[in-house]
Amino acid sequence: MPSASLDRIDLDILRELQHSARLSNVELAKRVNLTPSPCLARVRDLERRGIIRRYVALIDPVAVGLGLSVFIQVSLERQAEKPLQQFQSAVSRFPEIVECYLMTGDSDYLLRVVVPDVQALEKFILNGLTKISGVASIRSSFALKQVKYDTALPLAQADRARSTTQAFTRKALKVAERHKSTGRLNEK
After folding, report:
1. What are the CA-CA distances from residue 29 to residues 9, 23, 24, 25, 36 (Å)?
2. Under CATH, what is the fold of the domain 68-142?
């Protein structure tokens, strides 16, 4: 459970950076009640551990001419390890595919594709997706409107899980100590 290694201050740092990765270290330190040096050390540690994977700018797709968002369900001819790996390798070469998930249920993969228009989608499907070895079927759904889009993870849930784990551990230690003091704990 990775969140067990994150304390409240780590989660506060992550929460702040999710909302604005351009914060200076001094401002971030103020927001999480640290001095700049330990704050920077924690950020570097979160980066080193891969918890912070990278920093990005979120771009408005309509503003750059990529206003058509399409969800594509892909089923493969076989669900064996090699065809799955081949498909995953192939989709990584298409910049139009901005998200790809291995799924349970009716289809093997769910893709989110971003293109300028229907003609570009048709070209992508006919000249790209259908050319991938092992693809058995493709079903597309157009997004009419983006109702919610948030890149920030719900860290409050991670904080609650951390607190619950700590409470459970404290309780288990108390029970073990009580059993040990009463001689009810068999030592081996």
Report:
1. 10, 10, 8, 6, 5
2. Alpha-Beta Plaits (3.30.70)
